[in-house]
Amino acid sequence: MAKLIREVMTPRPNALPTTATAAEAARIMRDQDIGDVIVLENDRVCGILTDRDLVVRGLAQGHDLATTPVASLCSRDLTVLAPSDSVDSAVDLMRTKAVRRLPVVEDGRPVGIVSLGDLARERDPQSALGTISESPPNR
Description:
The chain is α+β, with helices and mostly antiparallel strands and 139 residues long. The protein has helices at 5-8, 22-32, 51-58, 87-97, 116-123, 128-134; strands spanning 10-11, 15-17, 36-41, 44-50, 101-106, 109-115. The longest helix is centred in the N-terminal third of the chain and has 11 residues, at 22-32.
């Protein structure tokens, strides 16, 4: 039987309102050892901000992360999953959309996030990515 996203996702993803600063997002990423935060507008998912977004859209463009709102740096063209979607559908979406993370949403609200590493651990735990994803973080 095919596994469902709820079985492999990371529950309770970190999220910030659109008005939070990029520096706040960076601190959460550092403190939680994660590479993204979900961006909310009126408690509903409207974007995702990655560590790469902070560098490429923020620092490289000369933005002051202490004052720049996450809304101006996040990706808003989102593909999301439901907890009841299959792991196979997540793999297909990541491949088709060329993304590494997908928010898991119920009624517009974030309930989880699934990453390429989560799927690698599930589908091929002995692969290089699966093994790396199981390793403790570098601090």
